[in-house]
């Protein structure tokens, strides 16, 4: 399955990797993950859409990741996941896969204040798990800085982020 225990930080996803483990009151802020294999972070979104002040996952940065910057899953505490999922305030740079990825069965996916720098596969905000008549994906107040030759590689060989 796509939630994997190989994140540098797997927040609440270890015991029940398909849906996460309920952790009421959990906050995970101002952390840095670097050089990870699968993902810098595997983390839950907000408890409810619009709950920006909850700070469940905020101001975290992933860099030099062989996979995703973060894999965001639906917060198991949430009772509104099937209608809306939201997360924000994340940055990633130099990731081999998308800087962030979601695959949550929901009608509305919201993300904001996301920064992706030199990532090979952009950002993946997906709503999985069946067909819907309407799906809304909202990305706001975010910045993307392109993939390019990297001048900061450790070797003399040409490298590409």
Give structural attributes.
161 residues, mainly beta, five-stranded parallel β-sheet, 0% helix, globular
Task: Walk me through what this model shows.
The chain is an all-beta fold. It has one domain. Helices cover about 0% and strands about 40% of the residues. The protein has no helices and 13 strands. It has strands at about 5-10, 30, 30-35, 40-45, 55-60, 60-65, 70-75, 85-95, 100-105, 110-115, 125, 135-140, 145. The strands form three sheets. Strands 3, 6, 8, 10, 12 and 13 form a six-stranded parallel sheet that branches. A five-stranded parallel sheet has the order 1-4-7-9-11, with no helix packed on it. The model has no long low-confidence stretch (mean pLDDT about 85).
What order do the helices and strands come in, and which of them pair?
Layout: E1 7-10, E2 28-29, E3 32-34, E4 39-44, E5 57-58, E6 60-65, E7 68-73, E8 85-95, E9 100-103, E10 108-117, E11 123-126, E12 136-140, E13 143-145
Parallel strand pairs: 1-4, 2-5, 3-6, 4-7, 6-8, 7-9, 8-10, 9-11, 10-12, 10-13
